[in-house]
């Protein structure tokens, strides 16, 4: 018997935890136990080497967003075992993640290190702040962040590299041909139904990438 989900017929809907464990199995004790509630020395060293993280936030309508955050390695500061500080750098001014935090302070961070397969997950409770001393510590290229996201750490765990291995993430010989990938200008024009000529959009985006990495 099939069931229709989002307009597609599927053989079975999984709606109980026991069904998942029956199919996937149970984690080994060492995997189940790899969760802590604070930033210890091992997590601190990982974060200090990471130049990139994905920030997950929840919108007021219940939807979820995931946005990239990047800066020189160690851009996320460990203030103490329970507190992380994430600088807010110039972007497209949508401020989706910040507005989401105001609606729901629960957040998640996935830290990545180029060429390194393991990742680190941190989740907790976020607050948006301004602080002169902390902003000064986060200065890059002479520019201080106007806003900082402080995260009260509640959960920390590591991930194995299987997904990166399967994706050949850090192996150039396994990278896909990107010649057919739409540019940001093409995506913006299509999704926003914009009248602006494509060339004009592309020029504006290129200029923004050069002039607004750290200044407003």
3D structure, described in words:
It is built from eight helices and ten strands. With 216 residues, the protein is α+β, with helices and mostly antiparallel strands. The model has no long low-confidence stretch (mean pLDDT 95).
Summarize the structure.
This protein is α+β, with helices and mostly antiparallel strands and 216 residues long.
Computed CA radius of gyration, to the nearest angstrom: 20 Å
Unreliable parts: none
Largest sheet: 8 strands, antiparallel
SSE string, helix = H, strand = E? EEHHEHEEEEHEEHEHHH
For the terminal residues, how far apart are their CA atoms?
A: 57 Å
Q: What is the 3D shape?
A: globular
Say how many strands there are: 10
Mean pLDDT level: 95
Overall helicity: 25-40%
- Structural category is alpha+beta
Brief descriptors of the model:
alpha+beta, eight-stranded antiparallel beta sheet, two-stranded antiparallel sheet, 8 helices, 10 strands, globular
Write the layout of secondary structure elements.
Blueprint: E1 3-5, E2 8-10, H1 17-24, H2 29-32, E3 35-36, H3 41-49, E4 52-58, E5 64-70, E6 77-80, E7 83-88, H4 96-103, E8 106-113, E9 116-129, H5 132-137, E10 147-159, H6 162-167, H7 184-192, H8 198-211
Antiparallel strand pairs: 1-2, 3-10, 4-5, 4-8, 6-7, 7-10, 8-9, 9-10
């Amino acid at each position: 018997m099939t069931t229709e989900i989002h307009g597609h017929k599927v053989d079975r809907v999984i709606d109980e935890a026991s069904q998942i464990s029956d199919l996937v199995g149970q984690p080994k004790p060492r995997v189940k136990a790899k969760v802590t509630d604070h930033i210890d020395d091992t997590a601190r060293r990982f974060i200090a080497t990471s130049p990139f993280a994905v920030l997950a936030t929840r919108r007021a309508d219940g939807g979820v967003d995931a946005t990239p955050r990047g800066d020189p390695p160690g851009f996320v500061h460990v203030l103490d075992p329970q507190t992380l500080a994430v600088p807010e750098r110039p972007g497209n001014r949508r401020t989706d993640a910040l507005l989401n935090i105001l609606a729901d302070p629960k957040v998640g961070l996935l830290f990545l290190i180029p060429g390194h397969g393991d990742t680190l997950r941190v989740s907790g409770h976020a607050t948006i702040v301004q602080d002169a001393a902390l902003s000064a510590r986060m200065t890059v290229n002479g520019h201080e962040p106007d806003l900082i996201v402080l995260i009260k750490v509640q959960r920390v765990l590591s991930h194995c590299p299987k997904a990166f291995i399967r994706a050949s993430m850090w192996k150039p010989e396994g990278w896909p041909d990107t010649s057919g990938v739409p540019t940001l200008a093409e995506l913006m024009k299509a999704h926003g139904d914009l009248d602006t000529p494509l060339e004009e959009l592309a020029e504006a985006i290129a200029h923004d990438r050069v002039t607004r990495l750290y200044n407003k």
